[in-house]
């Protein structure tokens, strides 16, 4: 209408100013809507902090924070409760530096607990930590630079064992034995029948003869535990060897299918 001189310029300019004002109001309202959405998101985030969700399924084994106690999470997330999965326990065994070179993951192991010393539990060595537990202390850097130490060095090995009946509990003391080697159905004699070992690695035993006398015999042994030794050569099945003092007359028969021996 202004181009056709059908309207006054003053009316045009007033309408244009009203349009710019309306657009400015719309922009202000859009900013208010965006600010309100940010406030809603912040409120939803704060609401999420009021809900505590356990990271795993398990049993509550410790309550660190009591009801009514104030906790402060400004520095770090506080520990409220401790949860453990008790259906499968992990036994941590201390392995000395003299023995750690002999073990590797996958080896069979057995352990007993103080409450049941006659009931062995069987497990498999899952892993052996590459460094001793002392490396986690603050002075580990300085101690690792020394060439010798008066304290023993132990590496932690992990054994996993099922615990469906719940007999195993947290922080129990276990006596662990790792099987380095085993032999079954092999000729064996009691270790008390062994004499001294020679430089050639052969042992001397006293063999009972048919006439009642004894004769020394050099034998080669294999695996040995605290009870029996495996005989590789030097004795025949059925021969009798003297235990301890030959004058006492105590003897035992060389067995061909003895119990399995473990080292």
Question: Mind explaining what this structure looks like?
Answer:
- By secondary structure, the chain is of the alpha+beta class.
- The protein has 2 helices and 15 strands.
- Strand 11 (214-224) and strand 12 form a beta hairpin.
Largest sheet: 6 strands, antiparallel
Please, what is the average pLDDT? 83
Number of contiguous helices: 2
Q: How much helix is in the residues?
A: 10-25%
Which regions contain 5 or more consecutive residues with pLDDT less than 50? 140-148, 256-263
CATH topology of the largest domain: Elongation Factor Tu (Ef-tu), domain 3
Count of separate structural domains? 4
CATH class of the largest domain: Mainly Beta
- The 3D shape can be described as rod-shaped
Entry keywords:
6-stranded antiparallel β-sheet, alpha+beta, Elongation Factor Tu (Ef-tu), domain 3, 263 residues, 4 domains
Entry summary:
This protein has 263 residues and is α+β, with helices and mostly antiparallel strands.
Describe how the helices and strands are arranged.
Blueprint lengths: L8 H41 L9 E5 L17 E4 L3 E9 L11 E6 L2 E13 L11 H5 L9 E9 L11 E5 L3 E2 L4 E3 L12 E6 L5 E11 L3 E6 L6 E3 L8 E3 L7 E2 L1
Antiparallel strand pairs: 1-2, 3-6, 4-5, 4-7, 5-6, 8-15, 9-12, 10-11, 10-13, 11-12, 13-14
